[in-house]
Specification:
By secondary structure, the protein is mainly alpha-helical. It contains 4 helices and no strands. The radius of gyration is 21 Å and the shape is elongated. The relative contact order is 0.10.
């Protein structure tokens, strides 16, 4: 949804005032994409999901990569 919104926004910019008029479908497309973006959830969730899938694809064990909550901080202080 975020990418679609950026593409539609760019098209509106190219069309100028006509892009937000009823003469083109761009205003309606923008409103629909923005609504979908709200309904689809936070973008950061999508970024995290893609990152986890890529790390798994690369063979990274995500459970081993997490620090244990009870682990003492490293350093001499």
């Amino acid at each position: 949804p975020n990418v679609a919104l950026k593409v539609i926004d760019r098209a509106i910019q190219v069309y100028g005032g006509e892009g937000v008029s009823q003469d083109t479908p761009l205003a309606m497309m923008y409103a629909q994409a923005r609504t979908l973006r709200l309904a689809d959830g936070p973008d950061i969730v999508h970024v995290g999901t893609v990152a986890k899938e890529e790390l798994r694809r690369q063979g990274v064990d995500l459970r081993a990569a997490r620090p244990r909550p009870d682990a003492a901080p490293k350093g001499g202080n």
